[in-house]
Amino acid sequence: xxxxxxxxxxxxxxxxxxxxxxxxxxxxxxxxxxxxxxxxxxxxxxxxxxxxxxxxxxxxxxxxxxxxxxxxxxxxxxxxxxxxxxxxxxxxxxxxxxxxxxxxxxxxxxxxxxxxxxxxxxxxxxxxxxxxxxxxxxxxxxxxxxxxxxxxxxxxxxxxxxxxxxxxxxxxxxxxxxxxxxxxxxxxxxxxxxxxxxxxxxxxxxxxxxxxxxxxxxxxxxxxxxxxxxxxxxxxxxxxxxxxxxxxxxxxxxxxxxxxxxxxxxxxxxxxxxxxxxxxxxxxxxxxxxxxxxxxxxxxxxxxxxxxxxxxxxxxxxxxxxxxxxxxxxxxxxxxxxxxxxxxxxxxxxxxxxxxxxxxxxxxxxxxxxxxxxxxxxxxxxxxxxxxxxxxxxxxxxxxxxxxxxxxxxxxxxxxxxxxxxxxxxxxxxxxxxxxxxxxxxxxxxxxxxxxxxxxxxxxxxxxxxxxxxxxxxxxxxxxxxxxxxxxxxxxxxxxxxxxxxxxxxxxxxxxxxxxxxxxxxxxxxxxxxxxxxxxxxxxxxxxxxxxxxxxxxxxxxxxxxxxxxxxxxxxxxxxxxxxxxxxxxxxxxxxxxxxxxxxxxxxxxxxxxxxxxxxxxxxxxxxxxxxxxxxxxxxxxxxxxxxxx
Length: 646
Fold this sequence. Notes:
Strand 1 (about 85-90) and strand 2 (about 90-95) form a beta hairpin. The chain has helices at about 5, 10-30, 30-45, 70-85, 135-140, 145-155, 160-175, 185-205, 210-225, 240-255, 260-280, 290-310, 315-335, 365-375, 385-390, 395-400, 475-480, and strands at about 85-90, 90-95, 105, 110, 410-415, 420, 425-430, 450-455, 460, 490, 500, 505, 510-515, 520-530, 540-545, 555-560, 565-570, 580, 585-590, 595-600, 605-610, 620-630, 635-645. The mean pLDDT is about 95. Helix content is about 35%, strand content about 20%. It has an eight-stranded antiparallel beta sheet, with no helix packed on it. Strands 5-6-7-8-9 form a five-stranded antiparallel beta sheet, covered by helices on one side. Strands 10-17-22-21 form a four-stranded antiparallel beta sheet, with no helix packed on it.
């Protein structure tokens, strides 16, 4: 954050960031960072006994040997792949040879030389290559060590322990505190949460003192760095939440060993619950308006409240109620195929990503929530996850039941701004809320009244997702745009103007949003003010009508205006879908069958390619249908999507 940005904030934030900036300059000039590393090394290694206090995140009622045999087998297979060089990054397997280059985007062979962390800049336009710092960042989060430690618990194979020791030592030597591309507060926070889990696993295994000592050094340095770089500002998001969770875990672990850790712990305890309510709307939706980020931030606060409760600290009843609402939201937006839609930004981040599910499958979080709240309605799978055994123990996890949805239901999160309609095979979701982050946009997109549709357990209409942040800034902006969503566009204008690399203007305000649900159909309607800024002010009203029988969808758009306008409606199809135009209709073909989309006679139809992304850093070319209509004065348009008899 630069001086100009800091000065635009409220006075308390300006003062906080000014003091932080001055201190960081002092640390740099006095070589504080270079001096603290050997001091921590000496403190850890001069202790007669390895510091083995735990964070309280994992249950004492867990033994690796008690895991189901299938889970044990899969754990060992995963570990073997990792030790042999195959590591998954953003759900894609890559092959690495040691020593690993921790500061390189290996896909583009681009490296960031070690220097003071404040000296990097990642927002380069018109790059010849799509190098992206999030790839070395994700690798350096070191989550891939967790399956190896789990396998060591089971097999006690010294080569597995040696692998962990070698990776940690290598990372530590190549990433001196404050002086590599991997020392950013968010990265430090997420890496801390992963390494705390790794440490908890190793503390339950034999002959691990040497590795735990290396972990203790790394984690203490993370706490020292993070305490001095907290991402505090006026409207705080997932970064600050990660900071709090990491400081809580570090403080809980080391407050009896390193005096400053008490300060970390007290700060986190003081601010965590209050911050939770600032970032989660009462109905449970995270205020950043991104479903992938919703999962990540729920994970942060779930961890924090588990640890706080186990430490004997009281978490308010209303806080737990909102946390449960947040978990129910995740359940209610989950599709019949157990995946979640990618609405808003997606950097494929999770701190429970070693449960053998794709990063868009959030059922492992729901299982943890089910155990925490002792509510089987939150658990939607009969599969038992490793993380559940670790956090809640063998007995609780073995006895856990699950619930599936087979009936036709609607879920309206009025304050959060989402509506889903689904049954056992079909699914619909639409965004009916503001842009997110208290009107700043952040990780939200220009997707008001856009929607996703699944028929017969097959994705038909999808959100294009989020391919990259800094790898291709132009594509990042395009994938946030109105034209890249399944909404309605007037005269080629954005629903709301984009602001910089992250912001979206808060002018597309939804109003008169209403839902109706019966045993046979569901109706969702709403209006917005985004196009009232045009010289000829336009009000858009969209209504979705879904019939239980065959999940037939009708979308009606009413454009209220006086003059001529060009109206564009976009429909983005899943990469596996085939589409063709026949007369005034679109034929949609899937492996499960076919559907038909009929449109108004006055509308022209064309098919184009677009870039879609299911995970950060992965992209494919898919098909979209563009519906274009020239109107004059108030006009009603509609399209209908229905299954054909197959």
